């Protein structure tokens, strides 16, 4: 029987590492321009995460390059994510975040970023902004879902727990099909 073409695709990622709850920003005036601290985590690439009241109204084109290039994230730099907690979640209701990402390399805001969705969910959980996975992530390009299992650390001790079975889930569609001839 063929696979369901409408079923979401699940991708398992390596455990995140390098978590810093509040990075020390070095760009003059940047920390004062932001609504709060910037966290850091590597979810396959480097991500800076800043929580905001309204992601849609946040000046990502202005903040993104400044956060992305801050010396705190040298030498690689970091993708800059602004994250709004829409629903912190509960036993009865899934957590929900609105996320916008300024990506290094692209040097602009992108419609979606898988590692950015992972970073937003991980940092939101580690800092107590969401209760538990899974976490729905709304990005300009659509919705994704992030899940994981916490190991170690007790209740309220997310900063000391390790994250295992981290996954990203969402819709996928074929946009290209082709054949490549390889000669040896």
Textual characterization of the structure:
The termini are far apart. The longest helix is centred in the middle third of the chain and has 13 residues, at 114-126. With 184 residues, the protein is an alpha+beta fold. It contains three helices and ten strands; from the N terminus they run E-E-H-E-E-H-E-E-E-H-E-E-E. The protein has one domain (9-170): Diaminopimelate Epimerase, Chain A, domain 1 (Roll), CATH 3.10.310. The mean pLDDT is 92. The chain is 14% helix and 35% strand.
CATH class: Alpha Beta
- How can the largest sheet be summarized? 10 strands, mixed
Output the helix-strand order.
EEHEEHEEEHEEE
The low-confidence runs, each spanning 5 or more residues with pLDDT under 50, are: none
Q: For this structure, what is the CATH homologous superfamily? A: Diaminopimelate Epimerase, Chain A, domain 1
Overall number of structural domains: 1
Walk me through the topology:
Layout: E1 9-12, E2 17-20, H1 30-33, E3 38-42, E4 46-51, H2 60-68, E5 79-87, E6 95-103, E7 108-110, H3 114-126, E8 135-139, E9 142-151, E10 162-170
Parallel strand pairs: 4-5, 6-8
Antiparallel strand pairs: 1-10, 2-3, 3-4, 5-6, 6-7, 8-9, 9-10
Brief summary of the model shown:
The protein is an alpha+beta fold and 184 residues long. It contains 3 helices and 10 strands.
What key attributes describe this structure?
10 strands; 184 residues; Diaminopimelate Epimerase, Chain A, domain 1; 3 helices
């Amino acid at each position: 029987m063929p696979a369901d073409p409408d079923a979401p695709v699940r991708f398992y990622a390596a455990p995140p590492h390098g978590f810093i709850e509040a990075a020390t920003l070095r760009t003059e005036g940047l920390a004062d321009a932001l609504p709060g601290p910037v966290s850091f985590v590597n979810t396959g690439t480097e991500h800076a995460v800043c929580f905001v009241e309204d992601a849609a109204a946040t000046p990502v084109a202005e903040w993104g390059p400044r956060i992305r290039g801050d010396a705190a994230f040298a030498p690689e730099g970091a993708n800059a994510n602004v994250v709004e907690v829409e629903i912190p979640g509960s036993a009865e209701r899934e957590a929900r975040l609105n996320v916008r990402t300024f990506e290094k390399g692209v040097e602009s805001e992108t419609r979606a970023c898988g590692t950015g969705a992972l970073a937003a969910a991980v940092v939101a959980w580690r800092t107590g902004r969401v209760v538990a996975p899974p976490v729905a992530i709304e990005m300009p390009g659509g919705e994704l879902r992030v899940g994981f299992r916490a190991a170690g650390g007790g209740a309220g001790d997310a900063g000391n727990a390790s994250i295992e079975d981290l996954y990203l889930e969402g819709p996928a569609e074929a946009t290209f099909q082709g054949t490549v001839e390889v000669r040896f």
